[in-house]
Amino acid sequence: MTFAMQELPGEFTSFEFPAGVPAPFNMAAAILGNTKMLTLEEKIKMVPGLLPMLLEGQSFIDAQDELSVLEFMIKYGMPDRINEEIFIAMGKALDFIDPDLLSMTVVLTAMNRFINEADGSQTAFLDGNPTKRFCEPIKNFVESTGGEVVCSSPVTQIHLNDDNTVKSLQLKDGTQVEADYYVSAVPVDVFKRLVPTQWSTDPFFRQIDELEGIPVINIQMWFDRKLNSVDGLCFSRSSLLSVYADMSNCCAEYASETSMLELVFAPCCPEAGSPINWIAKPDSEIIDAALKELARLFPTEIGDDAPEHKKAKLTKSTVVRVPRSVYAAVPGRNKFRPSQQTPIDNFILAGDYASQKYLGSMEGAVLSGKLAAEVICDKEMNRDSKGLKDVHSSVLGKEFSSKDPVGIVGSGATVYGGGKQGNFENP
Ligand SMILES: Cc1cc2nc3c(=O)[nH]c(=O)nc-3n(C[C@H](O)[C@H](O)[C@H](O)COP(=O)(O)OP(=O)(O)OC[C@H]3O[C@@H](n4cnc5c(N)ncnc54)[C@H](O)[C@@H]3O)c2cc1C
């Protein structure tokens, strides 16, 4: 894990987890071995907050969901510098928000991986673009086993039988799909718009009203020369940027003698902790602001102070706004994440927001899919399943009036939880 040094522009420091050393000893070695970010005293002051996680495991982590990172730090007497040096960077990377808004469970979940898995701290890149390198092999596998993958014809409505089980899915092209089981893997904000009227008074389906995707901006910047960048993911530790990577180093398909930086711009709006609503700003302002931050990360190559003969010129840039990305992991959200099993016998939930231990992430989405598959297998084999997750009393205590589904309104990727490049109208 590589972090930019805040007071030393252009310098980086990393936590080196030694190979061949089992967890959690490799994590201890990584923390003790890095002397640039925290003093020994500060490291020792982290112990009272982190020790219960080691001793009690997941139950302690889950119980901290009601606290923000800052509240947790105050409770366990952690010095502010741990926030400035580590937790701000983690919050911006893990959920695109600042630690005063972020649930401590998110930070502890990531740390728990470091403690329990020797390679839990590793980050990796796909060797090419996701459509070709990730989606296409899955599509090919599905088709080779007799399945069909339909793109560009989203689900617009869920039709029900008299007993409220799913009868069919209505696709945008007019076709209806019937199946033994139906798995929803759409983002939570899309699913809310599809919940049928008959299900809308059921607390199980209404608990998701408490979950909402957080806005984030993703930027790509191409330069006319190779920057002095590392091969891997970096925590920028700047106020506007989160993590970034030079894809010309990290990704085989984009290998090049000139750099292409891929950056996460976060927090990008007031609800995520930014005083400025960047998502509504024009691309040019966002790129200018990012370049100013990059001048601190690449002082000899970017910005006014860079010597003329080394100065990198921006040749192209793209700004992708994602108005609803992963669910905002503000304190107290975990209790509203639904189980994959639902009260409807032939309807199962997947997606990163459904209940699983890996937060809103790609890994979480995969685990959620596996849990959804498990529910179907259990039903088919008449096995006992994990069952429905209890709906929290705060939801059970409410009376819900029935609501017709809003449906899919508009077109374009943001309607389906994706991002939009340029010409963005703030919804
Ligand atoms: C800028 C950014 C950076 C990120 N970086 C990381 C990272 O480094 N590591 C990490 O682990 N995670 C990262 N994430 C989070 C990660 O992308 C998500 O957690 C993950 O993609 C969630 O997967 P999912 O399958 O639940 O949902 P999605 O990936 O959102 O997939 C939902 C799918 O449903 C489709 N859909 C929507 N509506 C319909 C409909 N009506 N009918 C049919 N299909 C529909 C969508 O088109 C989409 O394909 C990042 C996210 C963003 C926005």
From TrEMBL:
GO terms (BP aspect): carotenoid biosynthetic process
Pfam families: Amino_oxidase
A single GO molecular function term of this UniProt record: phytoene dehydrogenase activity
GO cellular component, one term: membrane
Stretches assigned to the Amine oxidase domain: 15-376
Subcellular location field: Membrane; Plastid, Chromoplast
EC numbers: 1.3.5.5
Keywords of this entry: Carotenoid biosynthesis, Chromoplast, Membrane, Oxidoreductase, Plastid
Transmembrane helix found in the keyword field: no
Principal subcellular localization: membrane
Pathway participation: Carotenoid biosynthesis; lycopene biosynthesis
Domain of life: Eukaryota
Reactions catalysed: 2 a plastoquinone + 15-cis-phytoene = 9,9',15-tri-cis-zeta-carotene + 2 a plastoquinol
Topology relative to the membrane: Peripheral membrane protein
Family per record: Belongs to the carotenoid/retinoid oxidoreductase family.
This protein's name: 15-cis-phytoene desaturase, chloroplastic/chromoplastic
Organism: Skeletonema marinoi
